[in-house]
Amino acid sequence: MKHLISILFLVGLFLSAGLTQDAQLAVDQISVCTAIEDRVPVGADTVFSSGVGQLYCFTRISGADVETNIAHVWYFNGEEKANISLSVKGQSWRTWSSKKIAEEWVGPWRVEVVDGNGEVLASKAFEIKAQSE
To answer: Which among 97, 96, 100 is positioned nearest to 76, based on CA atoms?
Structure first.
């Protein structure tokens, strides 16, 4: 019985450590950009032309003691357009996602960085403007 209690205690500690892992994550940098070169965002801005074709969300994450996942959730006019799961495998980790942008998707956008518990760690708003504007 004593061994069973010890095992249950250790399992509880292990599970609670896994559940709180994401709470330690921090987004040190978030950028929306036109390219990633040598793991660095290029063309970062908050306004892009409707002819941009594709954008990237770059994030630098810290605080992961064990491998975990985050997600980049892309929204256009408040509607989710993509939810991309990304691995975080170290204390300081750079990762990014990309989203093809249709020319008619003119208006407000945002990308949220979400941890494994569904908590929003950071958000970046940007706008797509018609080419003639």
So the answer is: 100
Domain residues for 108? 2-129
Cα atoms in the Cβ-side hemisphere of radius 13 Å centred on 70: 36
The CATH number of the domain where 122 resides is what? 2.60.40.1930
pLDDT value of position 131:
85
Q: pLDDT tens digits, residue range 3-36?
A: 545 544 444 544 444 444 445 899 999 999 999 9
Q: Which residues of 84-112 are buried (b: 16+ CB within 10 A; e: fewer)?
A: bebebeeeebbbbbbbebeeeebeebbbb
Q: How many domains does the chain have?
A: 1
Measured CA to CA, the distance from residue 71 to residue 121 in angstroms comes to 10
Can you tell me the distance from the alpha carbon of 115 to that of 119, in angstroms, rounded to the nearest whole number?
A: 5
